[in-house]
């Protein structure tokens, strides 16, 4: 079943830079997809369009049948509840504990306290941070902060996770640990779309690889490889 569909998607920034040039792609439910390419190729714009951080200049982006390109601004927050987004720099709320950071995603949709506690502890257990529930972000390592970010992104049980360079600020050993969590999430049925520069991870966890250069898809391979020199 197709979960994400991009049809003739173009993105030109106000300064005239064309970041996406006629993108057509289908991503099915349950897939794990790497988005790779040189710096400035359009990878970040590609993933940002998937959660409407950027609006395409032309074309349509459908997630579960909803066209993000046509969404009004006031409807974007509600749409994003169906998408888990993970960033390179974690974006945790510094004055909230680990538990509170993750719970916040459920509080905004007014889940019951009982459901919030159950789901938060469930995802903290999944990412190995159940014993850090009362800690604050500045008491955690970079890898632990990224685990909190992942827990927050999946606590709503979204059908898709979009990760933009999620291991970019982590040491190699921690990056592998984070990838094991992504693998587990994917095996439970969640679609994962990950933009990355990490050649070793892409070549070891062989999944679908979409390569972007000059705003165009130049390669789309099942069980592909990174294909670029670092």
Class computed from helices, strands and strand pairing:
alpha/beta
Low-confidence stretches: none
**How many H/I helical runs?**
7
Number of strand segments: 10
- Arithmetic mean of pLDDT: 94
Helical content class: 25-40%
Proportion in β-strands: 25-35%
> What is the CA-atom radius of gyration, in angstroms?
17 Å
Task: Tell me the span between the first and last alpha carbons.
Answer: 35 Å
Main sheet specs: 6 strands, mixed
Judging from the principal axes of the Cα atoms, what is the shape?
A: globular
**Which strands sit side by side, in order, in the main sheet?**
6-7-8-3-9-10
H/E series: EEEHEEHEHHHEHEHEE
Protein name: Cell division ATP-binding protein FtsE
GO molecular function: ATP binding; ATP hydrolysis activity; transmembrane transporter activity
Pfam families: ABC_tran
Subunit structure: Homodimer. Forms a membrane-associated complex with FtsX.
């Amino acid at each position: 079943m197709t979960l994400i569909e991009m049809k003739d998607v173009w993105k030109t920034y106000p300064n005239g830079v064309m970041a996406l040039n006629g993108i057509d792609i289908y991503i099915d439910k349950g897939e794990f997809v790497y988005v790779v390419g040189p710096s400035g190729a359009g990878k970040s714009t590609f993933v940002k369009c998937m959660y409407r951080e950027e609006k395409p200049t032309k074309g349509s982006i459908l997630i579960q049948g909803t066209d993000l390109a046509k969404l009004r601004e006031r409807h974007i927050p509600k749409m994003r509840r169906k998408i888990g987004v993970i960033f390179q720099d974690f974006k945790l709320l510094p004055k909230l504990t680990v538990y509170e950071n993750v719970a916040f995603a459920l509080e905004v949709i007014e889940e019951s306290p009982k459901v919030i506690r159950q789901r938060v502890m469930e995802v903290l257990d999944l990412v190995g941070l159940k014993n850090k529930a009362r800690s604050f972000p500045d008491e955690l390592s970079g890898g632990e902060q990224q685990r909190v970010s992942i827990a927050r992104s999946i606590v709503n049980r979204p059908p898709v996770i979009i990760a933009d360079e999620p291991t970019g600020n982590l040491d190699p050993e921690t990056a592998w640990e984070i990838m094991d969590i992504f693998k587990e999430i994917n095996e439970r049925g969640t679609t994962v779309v990950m933009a990355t520069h990490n050649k070793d991870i892409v070549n070891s966890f062989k999944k679908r690889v979409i390569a972007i250069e000059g705003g165009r898809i130049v390669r789309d391979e099942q069980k592909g490889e990174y294909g670029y020199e670092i």
